[in-house]
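Data card: per-record layout.
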Amino acid sequence: MNQQTQGTISLADCNRAIDHALALDEAEEAALMAQLILHHLPRHLATYQRLLRIAWTLKRWDEGEDWARRLLQADPGNPWAWQALAAAAEQRGQRAQAHAMWQRAFEMSPYAPEIRAGLARTSLDDANALALDLACLAMIYLHGLRWEAAARAYRQLVKADPRRIDFQLCLAAALWQSNAGDEAYALARHLVQSQPHLLLAWVVLDAVGDENDRALAQHPISTMDPDGEFVATALGIPISTHAMTEPYLLHVDPVEAEWLASYLEAA
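The structure for this 267-residue chain is written out next.
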């Protein structure tokens, strides 16, 4: 705790403090801690995802939609963002829109109970609503680290619908992890040039590119996911990149350090 009382705390410890505050049902405190991170890292995606959870805990639906849309700019397949948008649309009585959004969430997290319930609820007695399609199977392969099977599935999905950037990102990750470096590089390069906010594309480029590519990837990775938490947990891919060389430290004042330390001690 000495380091924390001196005015610094690691990003990982700050995240643990937020999660402990949420476990204690202290969502307002968790929100304040999250804003502290955003003061240092305004594009930090793991904090966006926590704030999405906090907004829905506090029934701040508009805030939840805002954080969801921010998440989708960097991670267009994020199931929790699609879940938030789907639930908000359902509350407004927009069943068709809600159903399409629940479907997107289901494709990325087919076994999540709330997502399954939302999709079933908006499917109008469709007996096959919860059947696993190729997109669901591809994500199961990806999260199961079955890289070659995931790559084959995502190739089919991208061919069927080239507009789906989330499928392209997952394909790039599967190609990278299955040692198809040249193909992974070409796809990641295309993605970062067309949409520079896509975190996973930068992660792949950092991993398979040359020194110049790694230099380009340094800034987006270090601002969106400096410790790799988001990619490792939200996307299910355990990774380490050249941009994640040491723990990221937040500089806080002594009062903030003591406040955060109190949650860490109780965790």
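Known properties of this structure: The two ends are 14 Å apart (CA to CA). The longest helix spans residues 27-40.

See the next section for split statistics.
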